[in-house]
Design a protein that fits this description.
By secondary structure, the chain is mainly alpha-helical. The protein has eight helices and two strands, in the order ααααααβαβα. It is 78% helix and 2% strand. The protein is globular, with a radius of gyration of 19 Å. The protein starts with a helix and ends with a helix.
Length: 215
């Protein structure tokens, strides 16, 4: 299944991408290229994230989750790659934006833009990994799904996968959920490494912002 088919299936993602691109292209007034990109990226993030989190925390039945997760399984690597590249590129754009704002002695707007970008980019990764965990979990018809959730509450929903992915993103380690298959361990390892890199970058960026405000 190609990327275009996946984008057609993920209407929330596609609509948010189009809205963010339009916002970046048609935002009035002269803006530096990195500022325009950050404005568009934020438009995408803050349209997409509420919509997809609402879907994940909603009352979708186990059958609906399984059907959707299996349908999205083939396109998960590409979507994850785009999300990771976008999140990491946003950190680089924020650095350029803060440097330019410091030179122009107009840091307030740049700091606000940086903070909203960091918050949205950080949230994007566990949300997309949560969808990926669900797809890997339901990709096989039966047997070992790769994640063992405690308790006996039936099939896990998207909220359970989101809980697991946010735990990995915040701590770079697993929670009370056991990882029991090689494909799932590889996915968890990838997220833990990315979480460490991204959290370290956010910490360095926060120190940079604080130093800029003090100076």
């Amino acid at each position: 299944m190609n990327l275009w088919t996946q984008l057609h299936m993920r209407r929330r993602l596609t609509g948010a991408l189009l809205a963010g691109a339009a916002l970046a292209a048609f935002w009035p007034g002269p803006l530096a290229w990195q500022t325009r990109l950050l404005v568009g990226w934020n438009g995408f993030l803050w349209i997409y994230l509420p919509l997809v989190v609402w879907m994940m925390l909603g009352r979708s039945g186990a059958t609906d989750v399984q059907k959707r997760a299996r349908a999205l399984a083939d396109g998960i690597p590409v979507v994850l790659l785009l999300a990771v590249l976008g999140a990491l590129a946003s950190l680089a754009a924020i650095t350029l934006e803060l440097q330019q704002a410091r030179q122009n002695h107009d840091a307030t707007a740049a700091v606000l833009l940086a903070l909203t970008t960091v918050a949205g980019s950080w949230l994007l990764l566990p949300v997309e990994f949560g969808i990926a965990y669900a797809s890997v979990y339901h990709r096989e018809g039966g047997g070992d799904h790769g994640l063992e959730f405690p308790g006996d509450d039936g099939e896990p929903g998207y909220a359970d996968f989101l809980y697991f992915s946010i735990t990995v993103a915040a701590t770079s380690q697993t929670s009370d959920v056991a990882v029991s298959s090689k494909p799932m361990r590889r996915l968890v390892l990838l997220q833990a490494l990315l979480a460490f890199v991204f959290n370290t970058g956010v910490l360095a960026l926060s120190i940079n912002i604080l130093a800029g405000l003090i100076s």
